[in-house]
Design the sequence.
């Protein structure tokens, strides 16, 4: 069997805020091209861990590498090699679709000619040509989400972090969004995703459930269902997510 | 008019800058009902609630709550309503207890007088009653907001997306609280983008782009799904999705957790035919079964109509 390439390696990750341990000895690897689900109740410590993996916060202890870079010293290199999208902040509302693409691509230092070509290709693929010069504030939420995702992977990062990317969108758009995720993973980009929709947990190759700062379990959806004698991920989550 | 109708909405519309947020909506809600408004962001749920809570005037139409008109009788309506907006809107720099006291006083009552009604909920945050509301966790804020909305013993409770962004376990707990309140004979209107919460309501309105797609009990809406629905899975779900999209007999195909939900253009198509197609496409471990649709299936079908 071919050894899978590790794109994220986490060994003994601790993060403390005063007396409070937000991340308590996390250990896991994420592989190239994998859709990795990061689940847990509100306050379980997901956001803290994601911030560390994105190079935005330093761990208290642990050996952690992201895209081959060290989270203590090489955070700028990490930032260049990842993409990030959250539900709360995605795009500039008072800039047009094209301007947003150019802005983000520019931040990542992509060449003008390349940006131009890829912008045309992207708008084509999303079927958004008619909206190229529309302000973000004027386009429907579902399109914003799809565009925000496409921009997050525009610079072809090794990993893209998605923080509740589908919150509030209609069920058809939610599924179209997962099509984009599958396509991205198929192209070799690792997808690291959080969600409160338990049906979406089923779409992950592997997933963890965090409880009170610890990783309670980590496996494929099928194995988790077997292990916890559950019919679906919702039941698995119900059994695990509330320890205290 | 049957006497159990507590809320009657007739032909309500509301536009913002020419965009229709609510487009000619009519419905009624019975006394003691737990009624859900289900739909994505932008469906018009919040606008509708703001009209019902007398905070916003509609462009057209009328709405009566317990016989009171939302325009003419707004002062009286406010006395019988409890409202929990989607955004946390209590005083962050007042303590838990101060917030609750404030709302009780505004409505001319006291915590003591109506304690029984909020007891089950408030008891969970009472140990932190000296803490500033701004320093509470999300779940505790929610419980405080609900306590404040209930402290004057309203006839009608209106909750705007109380479970959005809340994890699956906490959501379940919140719905347990609502069930208990319903037993106390409070009529509850609740909006949510989570389709799986529909089954917890007595009746629901499915909303999209300012319109109501359907109003009924969750069961009736499910029984009205006119197509044969199949759950299909194989070893390679991504390939399955692509192959089914290319298949000439496919009417709709949607991802649903560990299965794809599939309807055929040809109602008389038997599953053998579909199985043959998938075998031909080299799928392994093909599972096809007839299933009962859920609310999300129904919602997507109604969206596409």
Sequence:
């Amino acid at each position: 069997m071919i050894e899978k390439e590790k794109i994220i390696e986490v060994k003994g990750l601790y993060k403390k805020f005063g007396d409070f341990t937000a991340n308590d000895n996390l250990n896991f690897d994420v592989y190239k091209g994998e859709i990795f689900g990061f689940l847990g109740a509100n306050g379980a410590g997901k956001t803290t861990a994601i911030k560390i993996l994105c190079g935005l916060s330093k761990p208290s202890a642990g050996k952690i590498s992201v895209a081959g870079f060290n989270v203590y010293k090489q955070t700028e290199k990490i930032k260049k090699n990842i993409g990030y999208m959250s539900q709360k902040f995605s795009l500039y509302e008072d800039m047009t679709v094209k301007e947003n693409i150019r802005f983000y691509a520019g931040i990542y230092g992509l060449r003008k000619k390349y940006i131009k070509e890829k912008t045309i290709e992207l708008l084509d693929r999303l079927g958004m040509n008619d909206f190229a010069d529309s302000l973000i504030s004027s386009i429907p939420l579902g399109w914003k989400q799809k565009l925000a995702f496409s921009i997050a992977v525009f610079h072809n990062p090794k990993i893209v972090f998605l923080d509740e990317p589908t919150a509030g969108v209609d069920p058809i758009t939610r599924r179209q969004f997962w099509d984009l995720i599958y396509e991205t993973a198929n192209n070799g980009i690792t997808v690291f995703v959080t969600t409160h929709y338990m049906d979406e947990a089923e779409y992950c190759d592997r997933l963890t459930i965090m409880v009170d700062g610890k990783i309670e379990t980590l496996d494929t959806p099928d194995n988790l269902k077997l292990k916890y004698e559950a019919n679906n991920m919702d039941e698995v989550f119900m059994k695990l997510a509330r320890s205290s | 008019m049957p006497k159990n109708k507590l809320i009657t909405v007739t032909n309500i519309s509301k536009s913002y800058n020419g965009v229709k947020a609510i487009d000619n909506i009519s419905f009624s809600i019975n006394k003691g009902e737990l009624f859900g408004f289900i739909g994505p962001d932008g469906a018009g749920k919040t606008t509708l609630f703001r009209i019902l809570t007398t905070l916003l005037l509609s462009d057209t139409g009328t709405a009566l709550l317990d016989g009171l008109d939302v325009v003419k009788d707004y002062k009286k309506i406010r006395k019988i309503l409890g409202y929990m907006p989607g955004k946390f809107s209590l005083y962050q720099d007042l303590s838990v207890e101060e917030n609750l006291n404030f709302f009780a006083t505004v409505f001319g009552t006291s915590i003591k007088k109506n304690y029984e009604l909020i007891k089950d909920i408030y008891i969970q945050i009472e140990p932190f009653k000296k803490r500033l509301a701004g320093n509470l966790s999300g779940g505790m804020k929610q419980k405080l907001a609900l306590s404040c909305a209930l402290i004057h013993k309203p006839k009608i409770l209106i909750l705007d997306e109380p479970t959005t962004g809340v994890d699956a376990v906490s959501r379940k707990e919140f719905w347990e609280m609502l069930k208990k309140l319903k037993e106390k004979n409070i009529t509850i209107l609740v909006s949510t983008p989570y389709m799986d919460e529909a089954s917890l309501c007595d009746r629901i309105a499915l909303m999209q782009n300012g319109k109501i797609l359907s109003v009924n009990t969750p069961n009736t809406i499910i029984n009205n799904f006119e197509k044969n629905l199949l759950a299909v899975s194989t070893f390679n779900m991504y390939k399955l999705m692509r192959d089914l999209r290319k298949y000439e007999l496919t009417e709709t195909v949607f991802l649903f957790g560990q299965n794809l939900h599939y309807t055929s253009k040809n109602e008389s198509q038997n599953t053998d035919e579909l199985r043959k197609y998938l075998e031909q496409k080299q799928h392994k471990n093909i599972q096809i079964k007839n299933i009962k649709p859920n609310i999300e299936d129904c919602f997507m079908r109604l969206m596409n109509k």
User: Anything to note?
Assistant: Chain A has a mean pLDDT of 92. The longest strand of chain A covers residues 6-17. The radius of gyration of chain A is 18 Å. The longest helix of chain A spans residues 171-186.
